[in-house]
Design goal:
- Helix 2 packs antiparallel against helix 3.
- This protein is 74% helix and 0% strand.
- The longest helix has 24 residues.
- It has 144 residues and is mainly α.
- The chain folds into 2 domains: 30 residues; 104 residues, no CATH class.
């Protein structure tokens, strides 16, 4: 083989390695985490907490954003979602950026809450059916 062929092969190898490193850093090829379902009581608890946080946003937006982030992280943890910076849902990363790095603090906090709400809706899933609500009430009565 002449030197031109060797240089061409070396360049192709370097390009392939670089492409693999870029794809790995971007998370391509990573499997999605297998999330555990929430119990109906946990789901209702998180829904109630989120409703209270959204209500507080008008009077205390910074506090609401901090509490929103805490509840979102709790839901992710309970469902078994990895909590490393690279593994967090993109909405959580965007919310954090808007809340703490935005020039317009109020608008940034509003956008952060919208991103956190999106995660909450996805993690909590559907509204409970009447049957699920009755089952939850029955369980609570049994525990009392």
């Amino acid at each position: 083989m002449d030197s031109g062929t060797l240089v061409t092969i070396a360049l192709i190898v370097v390009a392939v390695v670089a492409l693999l490193l870029i794809l790995r850093a971007a998370g391509v090829g990573r499997s999605r985490p297998k999330l555990r379902p929430l119990s109906p009581s946990a789901r209702m608890r998180y829904m109630n907490q989120w409703d209270q946080i959204e209500t507080r946003f008008i009077d205390a937006p910074e506090e609401a954003v901090r509490q929103g982030e805490t509840v979102v992280m709790s839901v992710l943890h309970e469902r078994g979602h990895p909590l490393g910076d690279r593994d967090l849902p993109p909405e959580v990363k965007r919310a954090h950026k808007h809340a703490y790095e935005s020039r317009d603090r109020t608008e940034g906090m509003r956008k952060a809450m919208l991103h956190y709400r999106s995660v909450m809706e996805r993690m909590l899933g559907h509204e409970p059916t009447e049957l699920e609500r009755e089952e939850e009430q029955r369980r609570r009565r049994e525990m009392a």
